[in-house]
Amino acid sequence: MNAPVANKLVLRRSYFEASARARVAAVLDAGSFREFLPPEASEPSPHLAVLDIPGAFDDGVIVGSATLGGRPVLVIAQEGQFMGGAVGEIHGAKIVGLLRRAVQEKPAAVIFMADSGGVRLHEANAGLIAISEIMRAVLDTRAAGVPVIALVGGSCGAFGGMGIVSRLCSAIVMSEEGRLALSGPEVIETVAGVEEFDSKDRALVWRVTGGKHRYLTGDCVELVEDDAASFRDGAIALLAGWQEPVPASSTLRAEQTRLTERRQRFAGLRDGLDVWQALGVAEPRQIPLMDRDSLVALKKGLPA
């Protein structure tokens, strides 16, 4: 959509609606992206072919190198429009290979444009193994001193195994439209019933898994507009002052303590409204109506 700024129209490209290749083109420095395993070198999933399910030449994920703000980065971009960005064997192998390359080349960062509902159930154990390999590769990359920055704002969000992977990254940049969680709303409803979670209640879904909620609870460090340029600016600003911490058991223990305290603080709360109130928000029902800048200002004023 177009937004008026100083009597001019500025073209805004929705990150939520864009394809993976459109996001790559819009977020990274113009003309800098070089794809690894391009169409002529890629192979579709053999597991889908056995099931007579159409595959994709890139298996739903793009990997390559580029620059971002002039700094060298390696890039992963999941295509949510292909099988919901689900991770299968080929899909996972491309991501793991890219992360292992990062350990060797030491770029300024790995930019991970996550857009996935989790494991590709059609590939069963192969998909589960792929997720575990991605998790290990993300941690290995960070241990080598290379930050892995997740951008979450696609139509599929980051759920299941990809929700775990995103939280293992150095930092997450989200838009209000982005969603992040372990189990997806439909999965919770199927397993526990609609009384536990109504996946058709879209307002509830975003109050529990959406970008605003994740920003207020500290699960993402940057909240940006649903605009590819905003994701670009957010990633550049984040990297400008980023120093990947040296892995240490004391850091892990501190994080475990923080998560334990948070679980105790929010025990029994079933809605984002309740969590926001517990965080000190005076009018929780106003949060869904607030613009990005107002929400960022509100968070700065909340108790630590």
How would you explain this protein's 3D organization?
- The protein is an alpha/beta fold and 304 residues long.
- The protein has helices at 20-27, 46-50, 89-105, 124-143, 160-168, 185-192, 202-209, 211-216, 228-240, 249-265, 272-279, 292-300, and strands at 2-5, 8-11, 34-36, 61-68, 71-78, 109-114, 148-152, 171-175, 222-224.
- Helix 3 runs parallel beside helix 4 (124-143) and helix 4 runs parallel beside helix 5 (160-168).
Oligomer: single chain
Total helical elements: 12
Largest sheet: 7 strands, mixed
- Low-pLDDT residue intervals, each spanning 5 or more residues: none
Chain-wise SSE layout:
Blueprint lengths: L1 E4 L2 E4 L8 H8 L6 E3 L9 H5 L10 E8 L2 E8 L10 H17 L3 E6 L9 H20 L4 E5 L7 H9 L2 E5 L9 H8 L9 H8 L1 H6 L5 E3 L3 H13 L8 H17 L6 H8 L12 H9 L4
Parallel strand pairs: 5-6, 6-7, 7-8, 8-9
Antiparallel strand pairs: 1-2, 3-4, 4-5
